[in-house]
Amino acid sequence: MGNGRQGTGKRPAHLVWDWNGTLLDDNVAIIEATNAAFAELGLEPITLERYRDLYCVPIPRFYQRLIGRLPTDAEWLVMDAAFHQQYWARADACGLTEGAAELLAARWAAGLSQSLLSMAPHEHLVPIVRRHGITGHFVRVDGRTGPSHGSKAEHMVRHLTALRAVDPEISGERTVVIGDAVDDAVAAAAVGAKAVLYTGGSHSRASLAAAGVPVVDSLAEAVAVAEDLAG
């Protein structure tokens, strides 16, 4: 793959895209699945606005913010299972975020590299990305393996290591993570990469601002800012 900018003297960014809430517009499915998980413990449902104000990882800490205490291990297992069952029953009905498919296709056609890293389970992520017809736009697609209550940082380290095996020129300093959560910025920092956070997903703008990285309102703006950061 070419770098898309031969002769300009500027090295293009490698973009690592997030999936849920970034490329996939799944806010409704997320909040419905969260409320289904709460119902398992007899808890009151929450609004999307409250979710976006309080969301954080690890997820048990998010639940602590909502219910005033950490769930017990038994409660966590029940809530986590309920969430995933309800979410994946709804996920296929979710569309891509506006403009996402066109942005991905244009970058790929221009010879610019990009990959996908999600905390969605790998065995669920790969088929749904394929169904949206965008798998071929990424040099690598990785979902979460292992428990669902951790941070994205450890997965980002493995993701970038695997990318370098494909393209040794991909480095932390020219990598930009585009996501919708503060944890995406934390994961980027773990590999020496930069981050741009999108307001259309799991966090409110005020929550994202605390990460100390650029915050944008569209994926097109995210890509433009990412290229500036890598330049």
Automatic annotation (TrEMBL):
Top EC class for this record: hydrolase
E.C. no: 3.-.-.-
Keyword Hydrolase: yes
Leader sequence residues: none
Record-linked Gene3D superfamilies: HAD superfamily/HAD-like (3.40.50.1000), Putative phosphatase, domain 2 (1.10.150.240)
Keywords, ordered alphabetically: Hydrolase
Entry's Gene Ontology molecular function annotations: hydrolase activity
Top-level taxonomic group: Bacteria
InterPro entries per the UniProt record, alphabetical: HAD-like_hydrolase_sf, HAD-like_sf, HAD_sf, PGP-like_dom2
Pfam family for this entry, one: HAD
Protein's UniProt name: HAD family hydrolase
Annotated organism of origin: Streptomyces mauvecolor
